[in-house]
Write a structure and sequence with these properties.
single chain; mainly alpha; about 75% helix
Length: about 120
């Protein structure tokens, strides 16, 4: 895999994970549930939340970068890198949101990394 493609993939993955983090934080600040979608005031609150907006912007930029990586790289080699999101978000969830990170999750992270390495080396 070209270094240029790898860098684009990693930037895209990091921006996507950052978007998730911003969404998680932003949603904690507002009264939101599925039924809120029927309420216009809730839509305005959701759209005007700076964290939700920033997360959406991160996701959009991530998508644009991902498009470029998809155009010049092999799908079967690029797509598994999205699994890095599981690792990043498990660690960030633990550190920022005090979510659990037990032995099974750590084993899962190790397996994801192992699988990613195997797929990357197979080309």
């Amino acid at each position: 895999m070209k270094l240029e493609v790898l860098i684009e993939i990693l930037i895209s993955v990091l921006l996507g994970a950052t978007g998730q983090i911003f969404w998680k934080y932003g949603l904690a600040l507002i009264d939101y549930d599925f039924h809120s979608l029927m309420n216009f005031k809730s839509w305005i609150e959701l759209i005007s939340n700076k964290w939700i907006f920033s997360g959406t912007l991160c996701y959009f930029i991530s998508m644009i970068i991902w498009f470029r990586a998809l155009k010049i790289g092999e799908l079967s080699q690029i797509y598994p890198f999205l699994s890095l999101n599981f690792i990043i978000l498990a660690i960030v969830g633990y550190l920022l949101f005090h979510e659990s990170l037990n032995a099974l999750k750590i084993l899962g992270i190790i397996l994801v990394i192992s699988g990613l390495l195997l797929i990357s080396l197979s080309h």
